[in-house]
Amino acid sequence: MLTTGHNPSTALPPVRIRSIVAAPLFGESPKGGWSAEIRPEDSIHALIAVHTDAGITGYGSVFTDGRLVQAALKVLEPLFLGENALQPERVTEKLHQNTFWMGRGGTLTHTISGIDIALWDILGKATGLSVGSLLGGRYIERVRPYCSLLMEMPDRMHDVVAPYKARGFKAFKVGWGPFGRTNDAGLDRAIIAATRDALGPDVQLFVDPGASDAHWPQGLKWALRSAEMLADYQVGWFEEALKPDALEDFCTLRRASPVPIAGGEVLTRRQSFLPWLERGAFDIVQPDVTKVGGISEQRRIVWMAQDYGVRYVGHGWNTALGVAADLQLATAFPGVDLVEFIGGSPYVDGILREPFVLDADGMLPIPNKPGLGIELDPAGVARYTPDAEPFFAA
Ligand SMILES: [Mg+2]
Fold this sequence. Notes:
CATH class of the largest domain: Alpha Beta
Oligomer: single chain
Structural class: alpha/beta
Helix content: 25-40%
CATH architecture of the largest domain: Alpha-Beta Barrel
Number of strands: 12
Order of helices and strands: EEEHHHHEHEHEHEHEHEHEHEHEHH
Distance between the termini: 24 Å
Bound molecules: magnesium ion
Largest sheet: 9 strands, mixed
Strand content: 15-25%
Shape: globular
Number of helices: 14
Number of domains: 2
């Protein structure tokens, strides 16, 4: 073990943050199903690299426009430069506490999420431990990824799911698209019926209308009726069935719905989750580690959820680094059985030296190597960001 000459009580000498670089991703963001659909020239995902004076670099991921992330890094720079990268929770909390007046909960919080993920990666690399181990231990060695796909009209749903069923996925979520957007309950049912028919009876199916889309047209009555319909197709949860601030209606829906109610992907900061857990709004909570404040924040939310008897399923699918963080979080708590995995994103499938591969049971192994346990492919990253050189410059 290394010892420090500066402070005999510190087992590892500090690893100082030298710079933090964002790589905004462009060109092949998967369709969002949003009313204002994502274009190739839009950036909605970014990677983060935290470079240190010890030659260790940690990587993280942010779900927001990479150009906003770059601007946020300029604001945060005086707070992180020279900080000890081996202290993720303290450094992250410092960033949160000192940006209270600068738009907490928004882009700054999203950016801090990526920094925090990268700091945990560095702590793991410096100690030789996986992030899951650092969070307290590994409950599982593999987890079931559910494949997230956009809904289409009923006659298209077979083709939408077939390639991913062939790839070995045993659980699916379909969402957004026409579901709930046409005031046609018959169409909604037909989409779900076609999906269940394509998947067969033994595959898990979840449904996400995506009510955090702009100008979501439906309300509580639609959600209650739809929940009854979904039960006919053995749907495992109903996600974001109401506008993301409709706390009272979520509580009502959860009490009445025959299928579990999921949500929380647009909430940021641990404090925002308290009323939703206290009031009993969710059966399943889905914080996004690339927005919520990072691993440090998500860890606290998941333990809170555990104490309220609410299931946790991570939403950090935005890039391979988000998935890698979710895998480490999946093993660090009891009872986690699923992780979200978006179908067909080059930002997930195309930026790792060893891409994620399902095993014969449709499960993903959870890396037990130092840090996040994955390795970026610089050539892959360079395909989707204008200037990858400073991102990888040690
Ligand atoms: Mg969703």
